[in-house]
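Appendix B: complex inputs.
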Amino acid sequence: MDDKKQLVAKEAIKYVESGMTLGLGSGSTVEWFLKYLSDEMKLGLNIVGVPTSKKTERLANHYGIPLVELAKETTIDLAVDGADLVFSDLNLLKGGGGSLVREKLIDWIAEKLVIIVDDSKMVNQSGQFEVPVEVLSFGWEKTKELIEAQGYTCQLRVINDETFISDNGNFILDCKVDKLYDLNRAHIYLKQITGVVDTGLFVNMVDLVMIGDKHGVREMN
Ligand code: 5RP
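Resulting structure:
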């Protein structure tokens, strides 16, 4: 799996040009992308990045990739991000690493969004899925009840016996659902609940998906 992630991350460098402001996604595939980016920067590539998570921020600092704040005047030419699942219509399920809110904001405003994944992430839109939902810690059990009233079964994300806290200081609920035919509708219904900050459903955002498989890298748009 790692070979495929490495391969696709390296290939994505071809879309990076000097002078760009890049949205730097999160996850293990993007971590390879950051490494290849830093290799290219040693050869003269000149970019700045906006990280989608504190982990990406730390790694970018480690590689010497210059970072800028997401401010009023910031524009993002290209965002390169990973995904947990990519459906056949190129909508995404994200949030496995708990960075969905910052990822969604940066991926949304980017001129171009390129998703890099290995082929295990490509799925059909039928069957059971688990949607990560970032919620306020305040009254989270009430928010959970409201989400479950929409047909989900949610579990508070706990890692190593500790409640997972997002970079924004919120909790994540992993919400199982039997059918997920209309992602946009599912997202809108969840998002209207007051305690919900955002969902891991990324709808109509992607420009290009790059998929690493045993034969190389293929692209879908
Ligand atoms: C984090 C995400 C990541 O983009 C996703 O988990 C990436 O997966 P991988 O580690 O396989 O690249 O959505 O919130």
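The pocket of ribulose-5-phosphate is lined by residues 25-29, 81-84, 94-100, 103 (CB under 6 Å).
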